[in-house]
Task: structure prediction
Amino acid sequence: MALYEHVYLARQDVSPQQVEALTGQFKNVVTSLGGTVGKTEYWGVKTLAYRIKKNRKAHFTLMNIDAPPAAIAELERQQSINEDILRILTLRVEELEEGPSAQLRKRDDDDRGERRGGPGGAPRGDRGDRGDRRPRREEGRAEGEME
Result:
């Protein structure tokens, strides 16, 4: 059987409990056709880059699937029929990622409150790319300057 990473986007009007119910329904489709769902991750409601079917936000969910291609085809068919699903993306991978996905790791980093500041981790206000090229402003005017 092949390994897949499958992400689907559900409308923002749907509650998180309904998204979990949809995920359970999709798991049943895969398992009934001889596949297994390794892990599922609910990434929450995120803003979309552009409107999709008049929606600006969507619920994101990731599923790691080990299944035959026929099971994936049926899963995608069922999701295309469902009005609550905005978009789907299925990628065939060589191996499934263990542990939390990059999206969950990113959210954990944001929750810690360790803001790096500017570019390259420099504190805000300190632009390391400028160096000392700019002369310091003197209090008085230099000789020969016009007033």
